[in-house]
Amino acid sequence: MTPVLLLAAEKESAQVTDWAGRIGWLVGLALFVALVYWLMREGWKWRGTLQGDLPELPTAPENTGPVKLSMSGRYHGSTTAGQWLDRIVAHGLGTRSRVELTLTGAGLDVVRPGATDFFVPAAALREARLDKGIAGKVLTEGGLLVVTWEHGERLIDSGFRSDRAAEHHAWADAINSMINKTETEGAR
After folding, report:
1. pLDDT tier, 99 (very low <50, low <70, confident <90, very high otherwise)
2. Strands 133-134 and 107-111, how do they pair?
3. How many helical (H) and strand (E) elements, i.e. helices and strands, does the chain have?
4. Contact of 152 with 53, CB cutoff 8 Å
């Protein structure tokens, strides 16, 4: 046989001789990952504690009037208005979820399966705009409907994405015209 064939025939995997060292590394890595996860969880809880001054979220009244618009999509979170990275986690506002939005004369009803529902009264609505990002979610330009509303003494931006993105313009226009109408009526 040729020397190359002899070398190929004799090749075997090297014996693993230091099992304790390898297992030690794996256990150390698992503990490190668990520590990082625990620290992230504690940071989330601490952020909620810092935002404890935020009042309870309002719920929808019995009679909200006729439906102006409705949409289904995703709720991507809420932030302090104008600060798109300052996520609000108190009262479940930081939890991403599916969403069913309903706009009526009384306000904006936000129904989130598996998360806390809330209602934004018409008097608390401040602005609606199309944007590209909010707290950890960046989309194409105009891919996110951002509704600014007042809760307690804080202005909040909440980000929604419809299953049909073409609806965003109609929603922004309807909410802004509703705000302008409320301001005009209040000035009389």
Report:
1. very high
2. unpaired
3. 3, 10
4. yes
**7 against 168, higher pLDDT:** 168
Contact criterion met (CB below 8 Å) for 156 and 80: yes
H or E segment to which residue 78 belongs: strand 67-80
- The topology (CATH level 3) of 67-187 is PH-domain like (2.30.29)
What's the pLDDT band for 180 if we cut at 50, 70, 90?
confident
Q: Look at residue 185 and tell me whether its pLDDT is greater than 70.
A: no
The number of CA neighbours under 13 Å toward the Cβ of 54 is 22
Cα separation values, 152 from 19, 58, 79, 113, 130, Å: 59, 11, 14, 25, 24
Q: How confident is the model at residue 146 (pLDDT cuts 50, 70, 90)?
A: very high
If we measure between CA atoms, which residue out of 127, 111, 115 comes closest to residue 59?
111
What's the CA gap between 143 and 141, in Å, rounded?
6
From CA 92, how far away is CA 78, in angstroms rounded? 10
